[in-house]
Specification:
The complex is a heterodimer. Chain A is flat and about 50 Å long. Chain A is mostly helical. Chain A is built from two helices and two strands. By secondary structure, chain B is α/β, with parallel strands linked by helices. Chain B is built from 14 helices and ten strands. A ten-stranded mixed sheet of chain B has the order 2-1-3-5-4-9-10-8-6-7, sandwiched between helices. In chain B, helix 1 packs antiparallel against helix 2. The longest helix of chain B has 23 residues. The two termini of chain B are 39 Å apart. Chains A and B meet through helix 1 and helix 2 of A and helix 8, helix 9, helix 10, helix 11 and helix 12 of B.
Amino acid sequence: MSVSREEVLKIARLAELEVDEEALPVLAEQMSRILEYVAQISGVAASEGAKPFIPGPDAVRFRPDEVKPAPLAFGAAALAPAFKDGFFLVPKLGQFEDAEPEG
Amino acid sequence: MTDPTEALASARAAADRLVKVKRLNASLTPPKETRKSLLQQAAAVHPSGVLYGMAVAVKDNICTLEFTTTCGSKILEGYRSPYEATAVARLKAAGALIAGKTNCDEFAMGSSTEHSAYGRTQHPTDKTRVPGGSSGGSAALVAAGAVPAALGSETGGSVRQPAAFCGVVGIKPTYGRVSRYGLVAFGSSLDQIGVLGRSVHDAARVLSVISGRDPRDATCEDRDSLRLPTVPESLQGFVIGIPKEYFPPDLDAAVRRACDRAIRWLKELGAAVREVSLPHTPYAVPTYYILAPAEASSNLARYDGARYGPRFDGHLDVRALYRRTRGEGFGPEVRRRILVGTYVLSSGYYDAYYRKAQQMRALLAQDFRNVFDRGVDLLFTPTTPSPAFKAGEKLADPVAMYLSDIFTVTANLVGLPAVSLPIGRVKGLPLGGQFIGQAFLEDEMLEAAYALERVVPAGAAAEV
């Protein structure tokens, strides 16, 4: 399994992660090695009908559907990098649907 | 200890000890801040709790009100949680004093505590070596005697592996035994809060307090808190399985000698020991390193510079804000895992990686069911394939680092409880042995750990 520079960039876009140009060759090499290593499970016979293993309780327990104040020590305004009148502030949307190829 | 002045004395003593071990870089809370908080907590704590006056340090991916919660990451630098973890609230209610936050690999991703944005933690007895990870700060503080116990978290062995490297006890409970409310999510189907302690008893006491049902976590089982077992006179009646896949031909010779000696002691204690097979064990690490990054890539999507944590922006547009913040805020190992996780979940690769890994997880769980169905009570294995390795030794090769989890990831994948305890030393470096128990039978597992702990010699006699 060899991951190309272009594939790393495509995956980084999907992950909303900026990647340095200089770091790309090492990153591609490391991702290739990791993916090659984990791909060894492809050779193991596994029944399609095998019961999936899901940890935790067999059934989800529901809480009463009641509106209660969140028991927080302080509100979102104290946490957010930018907050005004009850809203989180972010830069403009810009060209949100970018023209990057989906490959 | 029920005299209020004793809690203050305990707080002062813990604060003094934390100053003495500052060189380890095991605590992320400045000593003065820890001291101030410890004294305030000690003055207010109710003396009736079962952990009254006990100083307990908390891994930095577990939310506290008293201290920041950064997960060892630049992306959460200065973050103060508006709520605290259920485990922390229960410790405080039991009279424990929270002794600051401990260093860890960023977002608990790592096996050496070298992947922290706040510098690496040193091994407590050999500064050239790692303490293990990701709960390396917690393990180092307990091993150095700064606190009797600390909370850590496990996704693939992050309590047991550092416990083994540092020579302390580390318990990973059954998935669902302890509430994950307030534990910053990494791999939600694998994560559990665990405990590191000087002894099985110290760790078990803390586990007993933090365990039990919690309506704030739907994955926490509707069960009472763990009943503390008594120290058994012998292990008569216990059937202990030794899985042959955990003793490969290339296993470190000292680890093998220590385990062989421990198995002899288990027999002398009256346990019936038999070899068993968990045939899919060789596929546990690859399975884990598909599932854990996949879950991480989803869980860490929330860090985007919009709602909390620092913002790294070029004032371009919102998408550039997300990318810049995440690119600058996450360290190299977290970036790598997010990319691998996104890759294995992406169109065209999902079936080959993620779906296949889920099938492997089912097979691994079946391996354990088969063994336990044949009358085996619990399993004994080495905790790690080697003693603590040198700092920097595995940093350039992620797969080599991942392989240090080879004996621990399975318990996380199949949700079972496990405990690591010291079973010997080689040239002064601790070696750990591990019991893996049946789901929610921690009491039985801890009985065996109590019994083995009592026969492991201290000091030079522990050398193998």
